[in-house]
Amino acid sequence: MGKIYQIAIDGPSGAGKSTIAKLIAKKLGIDYIDTGAMYRALGYKMLQLGITEDNLEAVEELLKTTEIDFSKGDIILDGTVINDLIRTPEISMKASACSALAIVRKHLVKVQQEMGEKKSVIMDGRDIGTDVFPNAPYKFFITATPEERATRRYKELTEKGETVSYEETLKSIIERDYNDSHRAVSPLRKADDAEEVDTTDMTIDEVIEYICSKIDE
Ligand code: DC
Questions:
Q1: According to the model, what pLDDT value does residue 1 have?
Q2: Suppose 123 and one of 33, 84, 97, 133 were both cysteines; which one would form an S-S bond, judging by CB atoms 3.0 to 4.6 Å apart?
């Protein structure tokens, strides 16, 4: 077995991190871990149970009794595949809100560290290069303009049959950017040693080729 390594992919919402990370994982034959899906899964469960962010006691209890895992590309919450259920605008906002809680971050970061210590992974999120794997040998910060990210997200949602407007999508992206980069705990920021890749004018293939050219394993 070769050396275990981590590739950290961070950046704002809708920059294409998960699409890129998934394809790179396939190309390199390593596991892909979508940490945003873990915050979404928790937000989904909180909504189902009617737990609000100010009820820290209930959140703490929830963390103790919740299992989030990945299997063959599926995200599993307490034994049930919830892939599509967590990709709605409502869950996006709830995930952003619950990800601002220190107890939530502490718990999920620990779970993510355990996932990436046993095998090589490419992990995407907001704090992978800063908090989850500060010593990762490969760190990238993927960006694109808010307008370009809104265009991509709008296309993705409408193709899935969701009725949203471009303006709403852009507003939600700007709002989440603000929340994610202004929260007190682990705000979104580029790790000093991460390489920034602005994908506004790049195709997915170009981004993948560029990142893979930097991986020396
Ligand atoms: O990447 P995403 O849109 O699926 O993430 C959902 C929310 O979770 C997003 O608002 C930011 C938050 N998040 C986070 O705070 N830290 C991570 N490592 C991943 C996601």
A1: 56
A2: 33
